[in-house]
Write the structure tokens for this entry.
Amino acid sequence: MFSKKLGFALGAVMIFLAAVAFIIGRPPHRDARIYPLVREYSPYRIEKALGGLQILNKEDPKFKEEPDAVDFYKRLRSLERQWAQKHLRLEGNTLKILGSKGELLKAIPLQSDEEKRFVEEYYGVGR
């Protein structure tokens, strides 16, 4: 009933859609030196769950989100950006991490323009 060409076309479409979902769902670039330093102070953490990954908040035990796999890293980035607007300041080549009352928790000297660009683009601060 179906020709071989239709079967191959359907298979090709399925492979294409899987590749697009894979590309969309991959995590964004994170600077290998800066991101782990900032993550120590970020309230958000990732935990494996039965249905996939979930985002938890260290400060609010009631907070728990389980976005689908395609949107997971977009949602995590969005939450980290919201947190960064209140807790990160970029002053020259120094990234300052502030506490909830505005006190300085840590100052990280940025060593390159690439690190500064990462902070500006990923966290949305310093623009």
Q: What stands out?
A: The longest helix spans residues 4-25. The mean pLDDT is 88. The longest strand covers residues 44-49.
